[in-house]
Structure formats: structure tokens, C-alpha cells
Amino acid sequence: MLRYLIQKVLYSISILLGVVTLIFVIFTFLPGDPALMQLGQGADSVSVAIVRKDLGLDQSKWVRYLKSIDDMSPISVHSLKPESFFYLDKSVYAPYIEVFKLGSNHALVLKPPYLRRSYQSKKKVSAIISETLPNTLVLALASIVFASLLGIVLGIFSAIYKDTWYDRISLFISTLGMSLPSFFAAILFGWLFAFVLADYTHLNLTGNLKVIDDFGDGIHYEWKNLILPAFTLGIRPLTVFIQLTRNSMLEVMSFDYIRTARAKGLKESRVIFGHALKNALNPVITSISGWFASLMAGVVFVEYIFAWKGLGYIMVDALANYDLPLVLGCVLTISVIFIVINFLVDILYSVIDPRVKLSN
């Protein structure tokens, strides 16, 4: 178990470091200047130089990369000089706990990770993420609940009515759903249900969960705006759950203990739901957990198309505005969630299937 945890931590650190490095390299070689985008193309050189210094862009790329890693890392090496106890933007003090000294001038310290400030809004990236992450979590959770419940039910009936017209239609829909990219499905379903059939569905093409009342009565929740994004995002996992449940049910129903239960004269419904389903759901449950992590990474296009103000929406906006700190913060947040969920999936799988050992 200890060996597994050490390997998992090292693996997670390498992923996060790779993500930060890749994004930093991409932004370094992309054409564009955040200072010019903030001031406009007609800005004078003095104003641009001031903004670049304020954003830390006057330093070399290598220094900015190392300081970005240092800002985001909870463990870092710090100089013991008082002027060094600040993050990259020099406006936020870095509280720290000294672990041990490294010579006379440096020490290994523990400190809160800092995602810096947005180039455009000047708000802390952590504050922006805390405002938008709940919307993304709600969307991902609604999508996975819709996909898992409907997928399990349809998969069970496909197994019961194997090789019938229902089974063939179900498999056809599953194949079609897997072949639909999320961005295309979002455009297609938005056009169909919020434009062509709008008089019947009363759904909005765009809209957020929290809506400011036009009459000044504060903020209220518009839950119908969740339907189209959740349906679109849940299509792909739905098709997977249908086929996985069907195949797992067919496999379990061929076991000896199922034939024994039928030989005892038990009702078919009790055989299916009381004996077969429990064991057939083991791989489906682990797949659901994994797909939830994948949905967190797949919300970008869906949120942007439906104007759902979540993590994916602000990340696309940050990419358009060359806002490196905000892009880094969004991607790191999604990466951390992905790592944590995969870790929980490993534990869940070892609990469901005792043959799986975490030490392996």
C-alpha cells in the first residue's frame, strides 16, 4: 500500500509538472503580447513596458517558468532574504513554514500554492476558479447521473431481449452516440431543441445556472438551462454504459449459479435483479467513476457553445485573451480533479474486486 501511494504521488507530480511545462512552452512560442492585448494595439512603448513589468513579462522565459513552478508548488526552496517572500507578481506576500535550512541563505519551506492573477481582470485566478468550478461540477454530475441511470436500464433490457429489434436499435444508437463529437452534438442538439422545437421544449440555446433577475429581485436558479448541456455531455458515456451493462449482464447470466437459480424455479425478474445485476454492475460502476473524470476535461466545448459559465467557458475565454495564469489555473484544476478521481477509482475497484491489489 505504501509503495502504491508513493508511486501515485510521484506519478501525479510528473503529470502536473508536464501540464505546466507544456502550456508554458505553447504560450511562449505563440505570437502575441498580453500587454498589447490589455492596452490595445495603439499603446505606446512606455505603457507597454510598464504593463509588462507589472505582469512579470520583463524577465527571461526561463526565470518566469521557474518562478511559476515555485508559485504553484506547496514545497519550494526560498531565499531567507525578506524581499524574496513574495510571489511572482510581487503584490502578494508568501506566508511560509520553514522545514529545514539549506545552507546559510536558503531553506526548504511549505507555503500555500498561488495561481497568480488574471492578466485581463486582475482578479486572483483562485477566486475566478472558485466562482466557476461549482457550475462545472453541477454539469458533470448531472451528465453522469443521466448517462448512468439511463444507460444501465437500457443495457439491462438489451441483455434481456438479446438479438431482438430492441437490442439492435439500442446497439445502433450506442454506435451513433459514440461517433458524435461533443462540439458537433452540442451544435446539433442546440439547433434542434432550442431553435426548431423551441415552441415545444421552451429551452434556451444559451444560459447559465445562476441568472440575475431583470426586476432586481436578486439571483435565481434557472435549472432548465442545465438540460441541453447535460444531455449533450452525457451522450458519449450513455452509449458506453449501455454496451458495457449489456455485455456484462450477458456474461453473468451464462454463469452456473444463474442456471441453478432458474432450475430452482425462481422468477426471471428475481434471477435478473436479485442475482445477476449485482455482479454485472461491478465493471459499470468503475467505468462511471472514470467517465466522471473524463467529463471534467470534456466540458470545454459544451460549456462554451451553451454559454454555461463554468471552468471550460472561462478557459476558452482566457485562451482568446492570451491569459496564461488563468489557463494554467483551469488546466491544473482539471488535472488535479482527474488525478484524485482516478485514485478513488483504483481504491473502489480494489474494494469491488478483491483480486485487485493496490500494491500491484
Care to describe what's here?
- This protein has 360 residues and is mainly alpha-helical.
- The protein has a domain at 125-352: Orthogonal Bundle (MetI-like fold).
- 66% of the residues lie in helices and 6% in strands.
- The chain is built from 13 helices and five strands.
- It has helices spanning 2-29, 34-39, 45-54, 61-72, 125-160, 165-178, 182-196, 198-201, 227-252, 256-263, 268-305, 311-320, 324-352; strands at residues 75-79, 97-102, 106-110, 210-212, 219-221.
- The strands form two sheets. It has a three-stranded antiparallel beta sheet, with no helix packed on it. Strands 4-5 form a two-stranded antiparallel sheet.
- A hairpin with a 6-residue loop joins strand 4 (210-212) and strand 5 (219-221).
- Helix 12 (311-320) runs antiparallel to helix 13.
Structural class: mainly alpha
Mean pLDDT: 80
The CATH architecture of the domain at 125-352: Orthogonal Bundle
The CATH homologous superfamily of the domain at 125-352 corresponds to MetI-like
Please state the overall shape, judged from the principal axes of the Cα atoms.
globular
Sequence of strands across the biggest β-sheet:
1-3-2
Radius of gyration from the alpha-carbon trace, in angstroms: 26 Å
Largest sheet: 3 strands, antiparallel
Instruction: Tell me the number of helical segments per DSSP (H or I, 4 or more residues long).
Output: 13
Q: Please tally the β strands and state the result.
A: 5
Query: Distance between the terminal alpha carbons, to the nearest Å?
Result: 9 Å
Question: Strand-and-helix sequence, N→C?
Answer: HHHHEEEHHHHEEHHHHH
Q: Which parts are unreliable, with pLDDT below 50 for 5 consecutive residues or more?
A: none
CATH C-level class of the domain at 125-352 is Mainly Alpha
Helix content: 55-70%
The percentage of residues in β strands lies in: 5-15%
- And the CATH topology of the domain at 125-352? MetI-like fold
